[in-house]
Amino acid sequence: MTMTIAAETAAKPARARGALRRQGTLVLRLGALAMFALIMAWFAFTTRGFVSPANIFNVIEQTAVMGVLSFGMAVVLIGGGTDVQTGGIDLSIAANTGLCAAVYATLLAGGSGDLAAAAAAIGTGIAVGLLNAFAVVRLGILPLLATLAVMNIVAGLELTVTENQVIGANSTVTQLIATGRFLGLSVLAWIFILFSALMTWAIHYSRIGLRLYAVGGHPEAARAAGINVGAYVAGTYAFSGFCAGFAAILLVARLSASTTATGQLLLAILAAALLGTVFSRRFVPTAGGTILSTLFIGFLANGFQLSNVSYYWVNGVQGVLILMVVAVTTFAKPQGK
Amino acid sequence: MPLDTQSAIIEMQGISKRFGPVRALEEASLTIHRGRIHGLVGANGAGKSTIIKVLAGILRPDAGTIRIDGQEVTRLTPALVEKLGVHFIHQDRLLVPTATVAEAIFLRHEPRIGPFLNLRAMRRRSAELLKHYFDLDLPADALVQDLTTAQQKIVQITRALAQEAKVLVLDEPTAALVKREVDSLFRVLRRLRDDGISVIFISHYMQEIEEICDEVTVMRNGTDVGVVDPRQSGIDEIVAMMINRDMGEMYPARSVAIGAPVLEVQGLSRDGSFRNVSLTLRAGEIVGLTGLLGSGVKELVQCLFGLDRPDAGRVAIDGQEVALGSPVQAVGRRIALLPEDRRAHGVAMGLSIADNIALASMQRYAKGGLVSAAKEAAIVDGLIRDLSIKTPHRHNLVRNLSGGNQQKVAIAKWLSCQSRIYVLDEPTVAVDVGAKVEIYNLMNRLAAEGAAILLMSSELEELVGMCDRTLVIYRGELIDEFTRAEADTDSLLAAASGAARKTARETA
Ligand SMILES: Nc1ncnc2c1ncn2[C@@H]1O[C@H](COP(=O)(O)OP(=O)(O)OP(=O)(O)O)[C@@H](O)[C@H]1O
Ligand SMILES: [Mg+2]
User: Fold this and answer.
1) Which of A34, A289, B347, B375 is an S-S bond match for A279, by CB 3.0 to 4.6 Å?
2) pTM assigned to the model
């Protein structure tokens, strides 16, 4: 019985689904936007201080860290394909940020120069990314498993570096990032804007981006077109490692210290990157979608905080968002390859 | 024919390739000369696609040497082959489903302005190229996954044509294309040949081989068994080399009493696709349906499949009006559908041949909910033999079969489910001549048992040879109907391209 039904759906040609899907994705995109707007409006009316300029800038500054990380995750999703089971994913990105932050703060606290500390942080991030790349591309381990394992290795390393302590750190660079302003905007906000612009170019207006989408969309087709698929996929993990290192510097600067709770960011990063796919008719991450969802998740967490809702609820909501997005995109995607 | 080795641009010698126990290629050789169109023919599973994938750097051969332009190349990669000027259209449509038409055409050859992609130029030039080569208006922003099979093929061909190729390799480019598009393609290929470009052309359509090829390599069981000049040798001789036996009659004769109407369609319309189509299908009858790309014939079949909802019209089965809304309902009504895109929708690539065939016809083999394994095995083996599906065993995965053999599994699957109405969309695409005859025999047998068959095909010879009546759709309207006596390929083509209507000619 179930088998016959499976056979019938499998027989459904692409175009009927195509028409359905086009309408479906439009509804989905508009629906997601409406939901964003609705939730924002609700917070604006019910929560005091939510729309104050100070709060908005606060959220945008917080979002800078999240934005960098979400882009790292988005790039991995693009290059690995968004298949839930076998597609690209970097579960180690948050733990990696924690490790990089620990390295950065420890070096600064130990009196290292700004440049050396920053280079070490980013180098650490990229090294972890390359470990992921090795596991996924060379060893052929499913990204879900490979990065889960690396996540644990990295979390362990972080503990040995910090001994589970908060390490204070301060330097001219961290000061500049945390408190500097330029043309009326904080340095963190500028970093977010510039990074987003750079990523928009890389993803949508560069050859690399186009080829990366091809690699994620149909690796055999990309290979037949002469693209070095393995190198591109490896590159995405290295890049997400770079993002972890970069975000770690911003994080330490903002808090003047490394924290022990960076791992908790993973859920929000994943939610932002996955939610971003809803805004594309192809259900792939886009720059615009990633920025929008990162801001949304930032404001969501902030709104909950201001209304004194327990932080656990934020986690719950992010979890629900992930489930919803995965369910909806899986349903709306064409079947069979 | 004088074979001037000086002018050889590609020489592949003694190429062997095994997949586990399967010997796909065994000391195969292939020599391509400059400025020639070189045909590559062979039965399904003969090794054509495999040797092409070796040349493309996708598969690494176990043995053999490859020379391109006189240079021996040992480590071929797709990027290197492209750099050497060899471009491919692979049989399994290797296109990124989530790419747009423009992106698919320019992938890896993207026009740029400084560090930026020139998206506007990509869109404009891809539209121009499609128009120029195939006179086709495809929105450059359409997603590949939303295109029809033929459109995807054309996008793929256009991608290869857009490059400055020295050698162009086309693995079954014309499967699923209609005559007009094939003619456009041939015009382009001849122009390229006259410019000194070499073409490797794979097809199961012998008329095409005869029409366009300057020389032909025949492959059988993984080896090349001869190089012939198609103008001197003739189709029969080539086919005999291919399948190593006499083929018999291409379109077997058939005489069946035609019974009561089983499917009646009245005034079926769908906005922007087709208007006011009425047709009747009787028991024991084979009715053909054809039309050019964009004529609305594909959309019509979709509605008959129950996959699209028509805007107006009525459909009756056995005199009872039905709402054909979903494919499940369609099958409940005992309509069997053979979709055109069988690779994606007709077979489960990850399952075995036996499982695929059994999937469609569970009820038939099930007794009290249990499938008799022995009976299933017997039926499956029978179909494998009838359609000469080339495989070591029925438990082999469909994924590992050659393109044409995958098609045969889909056909076996749907033809074995004992329906009353069969809607077959291009049933013999990519299938070798021997198996084609077997499929025709199967269709005839079904009709003789009282089934009604709607045969949608772009191969006009097939319609002429098989159908009791052939319906022609032009610009969304059913404009002509030919009986078996009236139908010939020229008048079908004239009607399909709107050049002349039968009725108009008769009154004139
Ligand atoms: N990945 C694979 N694993 C196992 N066997 C394979 C694989 N690819 C091809 N084969 C086998 O190699 C043989 C040659 O296949 P190939 O695709 O070259 O045939 P072909 O001549 O292109 O046939 P067609 O006309 O059906 O496209 C077939 O028997 C096929 O089953
Ligand atoms: Mg083939």
Assistant:
1) A289
2) 0.75
